[in-house]
Structure formats: C-alpha cells, structure tokens
Amino acid sequence: MSGSDARFMALALSLGRRGQGQCFPNPAVGCVIVREGRIVGRGWTAPGGRPHAEPRALAQAGAAARGATAYVTLEPCSHHGQTPPCAEALITAGIARVVAPFDDNDARVSGRGFAMLRAAGITVTTGVMASEAGRDLAGFLLRNEVGRPWVTLKLASSFDGRIATATGHSQWITGPAARRAVHGLRARHDAVMVGAGTARADDPTLTVRDMGARRQPVRVVVSRRLDLPLMSNLARTASDVPLWLCHGRETDAALTEAWRGIGARLLPCDVRAGQMDMASVLRELGAQGLTRVFCEGGGSLAASLLSAGLVDELVGFTAGLAIGAEGLPGVAAMGLARLEEAARFDLIETRDVGGDVMHRWRRVQS
C-alpha cells in the first residue's frame, strides 16, 4: 500500500462517515477521484441512500475523471436496483484505476463489481485500509452476514454506576456537553432504541436536536404488551418522525389498531420466558434495513442485550457524583455467577466531555 493510496483512502473514509445514520439500508460509502495527484471529485452516499458516493464524485469530477483513480470505501455495486450499477458508472466515466478496502459481502455484489471493472480493463487494487473501513461499515457488513444491525449501548451514569436516584430522578446526571455528544451519536445511527420502562418513565422524544440532522433516526421502542401511553411525546410525533414498536405476537388488538392509526410501524417479534427475545427483535430490525442501532436503555433492555451477547459497542458517560446503593443501576440483574461469564470489551477511546468522562469500548472478538 503506497502512502498516497492510504492518504486518499483515509479521506474517502472520512467522507463516508458523513453518511452514517443518514442512508440505511445502503452503506455509508465515501469516494475520492484523483488525477495526477490532484483531487478532482468527492462524494458520499446521500441521505436516503441515493445517489451513491461514486456517481456524486463523478459528477463533480466531470471530464477530469477520464484516466483518474477512484478511491472507494466499498466495492462498487454491480446490480441494477433503484439506481444503475456504480461499477458501470466508473467504466463509462473512463476511470483507469479503482482502489478499495475489500469486497462487498452483499450477495448481490460480492466480487461482481470488481469483476466488471477488471473486464473493462480497469486496474483494481484492494486491501487498502481494510481494518479501518471494516470498523466504519461494521453495521452494514454485520447485517449482511448474520441478519442483525450493529448495536451500541449507551449509559450515562454517576461515578458509582447509577442512572437515577431511588425515586427515579435522573435529570441531569451528566452535563450539557455530554448530552450534546449523545445527540451527535444518535445522528450517526439509523435508529435509537429504548425499552418500554424508559419510554414510560422519561417520556422522551428520542430525536436529534440542534445538530442539523437531515434525517432523523428511527425511534424504536421494545414493548411486549404495547402498554405505552398514547398521550406521550412519542405518540404525538409518530406521524412526523418514524416510530417502530417491537412487541409480542399476542397483543391487544385495540392497542395495535390505536398505535398503527397514529402512524407507528408495528413489528411483531418472539417472546421467550415472558420477555422479548432480543435476538428476534434485532433480526426484525435488520430485515427492515437497519444497520446501526443506538440503545439508550433502560436497565432491563441493557441486561437483555448483554446477556444475549448482542452488544457490539459500549459508550459510557460518567459524571463526578455518587448516588449510592439505593440508586437505580444502569444494567439490571444478569444472573452471572463467575466473571468469565461476562462479555469483555476493549477500551478504544476515552476523553473529557465538558467535565464528564466519555469512554468507548468494543466487544472482544473471540
């Protein structure tokens, strides 16, 4: 891998991140077109998933694309969907070389895009910044591989791990800067997910505010009985911002009709031992096209996801105060008897956020 290949691919990856949370079910891809060492075109997947990164970059490059190199963060698509194949667009534009990290694991592509390019006489180089691209596209790749989205679990807690006092008072444990950072994280995910208890207790809107988001994340509430208040903020905004309710398959027909009538999407999922089966919930969300889900609790939902091995990343915001043992824990009981039963995560980032500490952890791969 040459130094210039790494430099231009790093730029393409940074562009691709601009599409995170904005383009599901499509991947958030970046593209940079370079001719004789000069950038002549840049693009990333547009909100809603179209146009793709490559045609946007080619449109900017114009005639300068002929004989140029295209740096793309994922194999160009080869199939006709709602847009023509990106591989075909690169060929038509006269691109001479394509640099990418790896094959797209979408069964509709899976090497066919590269094959089209090579058949047209275009040089294809792969393996450039593959690990970095794998992290950025983890949700898309995971959904294609196992059928569920990437799950980030966020907890905002006191120094002693409590998310509220014994009376349920929690506003605010962390400061304004940490809360703004949470809105930024919401904006980079396709959906924000909470449990029914959190929806009832906090009456949240779960929207991204003051961040200039062009596309709001889907609000997902996991509620076995659909026993959620119909006079809540979520209900009031259901026709304006997508609201998906994951519920048990045996639900009161009147509640089902009421929520559907105000604009919510209802997703029946499996129930196991009287609790929502979170593997079933995530499979359903994956089937709906979601690639990245940001879970904001509460404790029971967090425990269910962790117990089932369904959390890929942890994001914690820790404040400098102690609430005491009578406070509400961030994660409900999990029934662990030995430490080796607990999932391990690697620390990947820690930083100060307005006086609170943000720490990010990624699941240890077995």
Look up the CATH topology of the largest domain: Dihydrofolate Reductase, subunit A
- Rg result: 22 Å
> What spatial order of strands do you see in the largest sheet?
11-10-9-8-14-6-15-18-17
Number of helices: 12
Q: Could you give me the name of the CATH homologous superfamily of the largest domain?
A: Dihydrofolate Reductase, subunit A
Please state roughly what percent of the residues sit in beta strands, choosing from under 5%, 5-15%, 15-25%, 25-35%, 35-45% or over 45%: 15-25%
Number of strands: 18
Distance between the termini: 28 Å
Count of discrete structural domains: 2
Major sheet: 9 strands, mixed
Mean pLDDT, nearest integer?
A: 94
Question: Structural class of the secondary elements?
Answer: alpha/beta
What is the CATH class designation of the largest domain? Alpha Beta
CATH architecture of the largest domain: 3-Layer(aba) Sandwich
Helix content estimate: 25-40%
Broad shape: globular
Ranges with pLDDT <50 over ≥5 residues?
A: none
What string gives the helices and strands in order? HEEHEHEHEHHEEHEHEHEHEEEHEHEEEE
Binding site for substrate: 170, 186, 206, 209, 296
Binding site for NADP(+): 156, 172, 198, 202, 298-304
Pathway: Cofactor biosynthesis; riboflavin biosynthesis; 5-amino-6-(D-ribitylamino)uracil from GTP: step 2/4; Cofactor biosynthesis; riboflavin biosynthesis; 5-amino-6-(D-ribitylamino)uracil from GTP: step 3/4
GO molecular function: 5-amino-6-(5-phosphoribosylamino)uracil reductase activity; diaminohydroxyphosphoribosylaminopyrimidine deaminase activity; NADP binding; zinc ion binding
